[in-house]
Write a structure and sequence with these properties.
The structure holds two protein chains of two kinds.
Chain A: E1 7-9, H1 14-24, E2 28-31, H2 37-42, E3 50-53, H3 58-61, E4 64-66, E5 70-74, H4 79-83, H5 99-102, H6 106-112, H7 118-123, H8 126-132, H9 138-145, E6 149-154, E7 157-162, H10 163-166, E8 167-169, E9 172-173, E10 180-187, E11 193-200, E12 210-218, E13 224-232, E14 239-242, H11 244-247, H12 254-262, H13 275-300
Parallel strand pairs in A: 1-3, 2-3
Antiparallel strand pairs in A: 4-5, 5-10, 6-7, 6-10, 8-9, 11-12, 12-13, 13-14
Helix pairs in contact in A: 6-9, 12-13
Chain B: H1 35-39, E1 54-60, E2 66-72, H2 74-77, E3 82-86, E4 121-122, E5 128-134, H3 137-146, E6 148-153, H4 160-165, E7 178-186, H5 189-195, E8 198-206, E9 218-224, E10 229-234, H6 239-249, E11 257-260, H7 277-289, E12 293-296, H8 299-305, E13 312-320, E14 326-336, H9 346-354, E15 363-371, H10 386-404, H11 408-415, E16 424-429, E17 435-438, H12 443-454, H13 459-468, E18 472-484, E19 490-496, E20 502-506, H14 515-527, E21 534-538, H15 555-582, E22 589-592, E23 595-598, E24 601-608, H16 609-615, H17 625-628, E25 652-657, E26 663-675, E27 682-692, H18 699-718, E28 749-753, H19 776-788, E29 794-795, H20 799-810, H21 818-821
Parallel strand pairs in B: 1-12, 8-29, 10-11, 14-15, 20-21, 27-28
Antiparallel strand pairs in B: 1-5, 2-4, 2-6, 3-5, 7-15, 8-13, 9-10, 9-12, 13-14, 16-17, 18-26, 19-20, 19-25, 22-23, 23-24, 26-27
Helix pairs in contact in B: 9-10, 10-11, 10-19, 14-15, 18-19
The chains are: A alpha+beta, B alpha+beta.
Bound molecules: flavin-adenine dinucleotide (FAD).
Flavin-adenine dinucleotide is lined by residues 29-37, 75, 115-116, 120, 124-125, 127-129, 131-132, 137-139, 175, 180-181, 206-207 of chain A.
Chain lengths: 304, 827
């Protein structure tokens, strides 16, 4: 379990990083938190010729930028920083966190707390997790649900790839050789909305057997205007399902929403769970997340 | 955790020695002496040694079963930094022979062991094929990846069913794949079952798992060519036996071989196997190369090339009466021993003999087949066959209770051996070749203590409350009797230094048990010195040459008693010398805080043990101030020789403890689980343990052992398993997919003790190392079964599997408890 030999670059600026990446193209891999890449190297499942360590680029990449519309998470923001945000229902605990952290979308914070364990969250990055594109990972589903995007920079310029085009397959993202993901943008939820994240994992902190990020928006009358969910671990990439048909109007039936979601996922068997069990969990978690998201939406709309 | 006071057995318990109650460190919950060092990062494990050594790495078979047609090492030899590459062709002398069959047994009619490097055929994924020695491990692994092997794949035999079907053979000369077949019978079980008013048949299955110590194996060898001597550091559970094995394998005189065990990061049984291929090859290469060589096993290697355990299928027939009294028990089981049998058939022997637990079953027949498969070999893992045994017996108890509509605790009480029947002979031959005779124990008392601790009677209300909240809970019980402290022997050496410090050495090894503390407590108690003056060395053949090893919950019994006996010899000698020096009678002397004085006269004449130690070694030369006191003109001349006849110089002694047979500890676990009605997730709400390991040397360490065992038991029952695919690939060979529980999965353990000292040894102690893990499968299966009303006959169990059982029940399959049809099932 020792990696094969590799070259190592530790650029001091993003521009320098991009030129190194341009030089090596497909032979280079970016090293961010290393929580996924280092195990792959040690098991000799990946053997890049060159590692480009971006951990010295904190000035440019360890930043949270936010405005009314969205939060932009730089490539060196660790999971821990997003997870630190207190739950949406509480405003008392925010004094410790800086203003940007306090205004992280609740769903992003909630989902991040399901990512791995505290020690791993201290190193692993949100953007790294998106680029890594594990279909069992939490954050790709969140990005997909909220309609976010990833900014990819190269010596040729920067392009912004929307989430629905970013996740290409298991452990495959739209990142091209020579590109550095510099940030991901998570749009804020609409007014009068609520969200919830739920998952079932074998042990606390494990990748989920099934997980769901779900968001409900209400109309002016307090009725469900839309309900959408993104599922993880039920296919090669996160799966977005529009549940609105099942729950809109006055009779909200989350069981029905669960059945709708079940019809749109294609989970696989593995040694931890059968496809049938995963499909079953899709139904259960849809209802559980849906009820919570709806309650939060009502709370946010002031008619709890 | 609950630290309950140690309670002596009730007065109606069988007559046994009173537990040691003299004031002193023995029996006190003192902190572990080793923890400060380990917690401060000062532990020295195998990989902390030998930074300058060459590194070894192994090419391991990617096939479960294949013939080696050709091995091409040319490209690998070109890698800069490669020093040597060895294949089977290079091995010589006894190193080229198969590894030893450590524990032969008459029923093991077809034993097979591997060669250190595969010869012609590989029989499991992970079997070592070539060894690369290079300047560092990175280079060695690079070279390994360049070795080209031409394979001719052969059909693989994976799993018990395939082994029984025997369409293919693992070893061509064992066409039925049967390594061993053993029957033991007490009474006529089949007739008893046929005559019984009621009977049942159960199929019970335990899946493969592994002990996975956090530190894998490792070997570091130094050959001194001038001295022609070898020192080997190895992460083992038996340094003394590794020494003899290496001397034999490498054709060296035993006194030219030293084996030292550094700090060991867990063993759990897997490190009792020896010599491992690497344990032979690393020293062999060090001698050939005249260079230090080191190999440290990585996690993947540990999964695919060390040892596993647990996989067994059982078919049980039981005959019983309307009160649930068992009249006959007939158990047949099939044990998957993997590709080789170097450790013999200890695991199935233990299952077959420990299965009866605390019960009398009328007549008992047990028959097992131990089978070859193309998988990693099976050797004892903490619990060693008892986890399965307990699972089988306790499933039978629950099935009988369900069948008769009786309380599960009551059925157990009905079948238990009574304390007045002790010692109780089960009529079987145990793993040490000796009769299986329970020495002491009050099983009904242990059970009642567990029922109290978990509030068995009050659970109906807990269940009703949970049901009202839409939650599903269940409770389970499991009892066990564990043979501990098997022979043949251990020894110990105790010396009082001229500083008054005491050094203790024993041959067996330590992997976290706290030996440095408990052996110190024993020596300190016997010698009348403070515990912190005592230093203990284990697993170092330079300090103690003879010993057996640390396994079978034997260290406290075997080395503990040897330490006590050696310390008693030292004490007697100290009193003889002190009596002469103080002109007193030995019988009047006592030792308190390291000072010998006349009992009852603490302020009277006295002499420190340090001085006694000086006087114990008559000197010609004074090398320091203390030594002066022992020189020939300082000591008053007597008529006799300076070293009296029958005495030896030095305040030191060696003693041995060798028991006639094992002692038997017992216990009862009770667990409460909650199963999510929707997701089928399983949560352990309460885990209660009543444990009886005889006299307790250190209750804190006993509880620590129980806690660790329970963690492993819960892991084994709900999370961990080894999964092979049909082609023999181990598909979860990492901690990402082999789900060792985190702290978040391990329940709080509530403990109560019962104490039935053993009459078989001076200290009255029994073993505790494995106890916590034994009932894990059984008690959690029982609790889940109770929560669900669905029979649980296979462990471990995952939420996905529980979900599947629910669906099968809903589809009308006959897997529900009978109590459902009586209307007592969960809603
Ligand atoms: C025990 C354990 C449990 C875990 N559990 C979970 C879990 O439950 N859920 C979960 O989502 N994750 C889990 N992870 C993974 C963790 O979240 C990782 O941190 C994350 O997947 C990758 O982030 P990283 O910064 O460590 O990336 P790295 O490991 O450094 O890189 C991962 C991949 O992304 C690429 N990459 C990273 N950053 C960039 C960038 N800015 N531009 C271009 N390419 C980039 C790398 O080249 C590499 O291919 C777990 C990890 C461990 C070790």
């Amino acid at each position: 379990m020792k990696p094969p030999s590799f070259g190592y670059h530790r650029p001091q600026t993003v521009a320098e990083a991009l030129s190194v990446l341009a030089r090596y193209g497909p032979d280079a891999k970016v090293l961010a938190g290393g929580q996924s890449l280092i195990p792959l190297l040690n098991m000799r499942l990946a053997a890049p010729k060159v590692l480009v360590d971006i951990n010295r680029l904190g000035a440019e990449l360890d930043r949270l930028d936010e405005d009314e519309q969205a939060v932009r998470v730089g490539a060196l923001v660790r999971h821990a920083r997003l997870a630190r945000r207190t739950p949406s229902t509480s405003t008392t605990g925010t004094s410790m966190a800086d203003a940007a952290e306090a205004s992280i979308p609740p769903l992003l914070a909630e989902a991040t707390r399901y990512v791995a364990h505290p020690t791993i969250r201290n190193r692993g990055t949100t953007v790294g997790s998106l680029v890594h594109a594990d279909p069992a990972a939490e954050l790709p589903a969140v990005l997909l649900l909220c309609g976010g995007s990833v900014e990819l920079a190269s010596v040729h310029g920067t392009r912004t790839v929307p989430a629905e085009q970013f996740f290409v397959g298991p452990l495959q993202s739209a990142l091209a050789p020579g590109e550095l993901a510099v940030a991901a943008t998570f749009p804020r939820p609409p007014a009068r909305s609520g969200s919830a994240f739920r998952e079932v994992s074998r042990r606390a902190g494990d990748y989920a057997l099934v997980g769901v990020a779900l968001q409900v928006a209400l109309d002016g009358d307090g009725q469900v205007a839309s309900a959408r969910a993104a599922y993880l671990s039920v296919g090669p990439t996160p799966v977005l399902v529009d549940l609105t048909d099942a729950v809109h109007g006055s009779t909200v039936d989350w069981e029905d929403a669960g059945r709708l979601a079940q019809s749109q996922v294609e989970p696989d068997d593995d040694i931890h769970a059968s496809a049938a069990y995963r499909r079953h969990l899709v139904g259960v978690l849809t209802r559980r997340a849906g009820e919570v998201a709806l309650a939060r939406a009502r709370e946010a709309s002031g008619d709890a | 955790m609950t630290v309950a006071p140690v309670r002596p057995a009730e007065s109606d318990a069988p007559a046994v020695a009173e537990p040691t109650v003299a004031p002193g460190p023995f029996g006190a919950p003192i902190l572990r002496k080793e923890d400060r060092r380990l917690a401060a990062g000062e532990g020295r494990y195998l990989d902390d040694l030998g930074h300058e050594a060459l590194a070894a790495a192994f090419l391991r078979s990617p096939h479960a079963h294949a013939r080696i047609v050709d091995i091409d090492i040319d490209a690998a030899l070109d890698v800069e930094g490669v020093v040597a590459i060895y294949t089977y062709e290079d091995l010589d002398g006894r190193v080229a022979e198969p590894l030893p069959l450590l524990i032969p047994h008459p029923a093991l009619h077809a034993p097979r062991t591997a060669y250190p490097l595969a010869k012609d055929v590989v029989r499991h994924v992970g079997e070592p094929v070539a060894m690369v020695v290079a300047t560092d491990r990175y280079t060695a692994e690079d070279a390994v990846s360049l070795i080209r092997v031409e394979w001719e794949p052969l059909p693989a035999v994976i799993g018990i069913d395939a082994a029984v079907a025997a369409e293919h053979a693992v070893h061509p000369d064992v066409p039925d794949n049967v390594a061993a077949h053993l029957v033991q019978e007490v009474g006529d079980a089949q007739a008893a079952i046929a005559a019984a008013p009621r009977s049942l048949t159960l199929d019970l299955h335990v899946e493969r798992s592994a002990s996975t110590p956090l530190e894998g194996k490792g070997v570091y060898a130094r050959w001194d060519a001038d001295d022609r001597s070898l020192r080997v550091y190895t992460s083992t559970q038996t340094s003394t036996s590794v020494r003899f094995a290496l001397a034999a394998k490498l054709s060296l005189p035993v006194d030219r071989v030293e084996v030292v065990t550094p700090d060991v990061g867990g063993g759990f049984g897997v490190k009792i196997v020896h010599p491992w291929p690497e344990e032979v090859l690393v020293p062999w290469a060090a001698i050939r190369l005249r260079r230090e060589v080191k190999w440290v096993e990585d996690r993947r290697e540990h999964f695919i090339s060390s040892a596993h355990e647990r996989a067994q299928k059982h078919t049980v027939r039981v005959g019983f009466d309307d009160e649930g009294r068992i009249l006959g028990l007939d158990v047949r089981f099939w044990h998957d021993n993997g590709a080789y049998t170097p450790y013999g058939i200890i695991v199935p022997i233990i299952t077959s003999t420990q299965l009866l637990g605390p019960y009398k079953v009328g007549a008992y027949r047990v028959e097992f087949h131990s089978l070859y498969t193309n998988t990693v070999m099976v050797t004892p893992y903490r619990g060693a066959g008892r986890v399965h045994a307990c699972f089988v017996m306790e499933r039978v108890m629950d099935a009988v209770a369900d069948h008769c509509g009786l309380d599960r605790a009551q059925v157990r009480l009905t079948n238990m051996i009574r304390p007045e029947e002790m010692p109780y002979d089960q009529g079987l031959i145990f793993q040490d070749g000796r009769p299986l005779i329970y020495d002491t124990g009050d099983f009904p008392r242990s059970l009642r203590a567990a029922l109290d601790l978990v509030d068995w009677e009050g659970f109906a209300a807990v269940r009703a409350q949970a049901q009202a909240e839409g939650r599903r809970v269940g409770i389970g019980l499991a009892t066990y009797v564990e043979g501990t402290g098997v022979g043949p022997y251990e020894g110990a050496y105790v010396r009082v230094e001229t500083t008054g410090d005491v050094v203790v050495a024993t041959g067996l090894t330590t992997q976290g048990q706290g030996h440095a503390t408990v052996f110190a407590q024993i020596a300190a108690q016997e010698l009348g010195v403070p515990v912190d003056r005592v230093t203990v060395t284990t697993g170092d053949t330079r300090r103690f040459k003879y010993g057996v090893g640390t396994f079978a919950s034997r260290a406290a019994v075997m080395s503990g008693n040897a330490v006590a006996l050696a310390a008693r010899k030292v004490r007697a000698k100290a009193l003889r010398i002190a009596a002469a020096a103080l002109a007193a009678d030995e019988s009047e002397l006592t030792i308190v805080d390291g000072v010998v004085s006349v009992r009852g006269f603490p302020d009277g004449p006295s002499i420190p043990l340090a001085t006694v130690a000086v006087l114990a070694n008559p000197l010609r030369y004074a090398f320091d101030e203390e030594a002066k006191r022992a020189t020939q003109f300082a000591v008053p001349a007597t008529d006799g020789p300076p070293v009296p006849e029958g005495e030896e110089p030095g305040l030191e002694a060696t003693a041995w403890y060798s028991p006639v047979r094992s002692t038997f500890a017992n216990g009862v676990h009770a667990a409460v689980v909650e199963t999510d009605p929707e997701t089928a997730e399983i949560r352990v709400l309460r885990y209660c343990v009543v444990h009886d390991c005889g006299t307790v040397i250190n209750p804190m360490i006993v509880e620590g052992q129980v806690h660790g065992g329970v963690a492993q038991g819960v892991g084994g029952a709900l999370y961990e398993r080894i999964v092979y695919d049909e082609s023999g690939q181990l598909v979860n060979a990492s901690f990402m997919d082999f789900l060792m529980p985190y702290a978040s999965e391990v329940p709080t353990v509530e403990i109560d003790h019962v104490t039935s000292p053993s009459p078989l040894n001076p200290l009255g102690v029994k073993g505790v190392g494995e106890a916590g893990v034994i009932p894990g499968h059984a008690v959690l299966a029982a609790a889940i079964e109770d929560a669900e009303g669905i029979r649980i006959d296979r462990m471990p169990i995952s939420p996905a599997e529980l979900f599947d059982l629910r669906r099968r029940l809903a589809a009308g399959e006959d897997i529900g408890l009978r109590r459902r049809s009586r209307g007592e099932g969960p809603s």
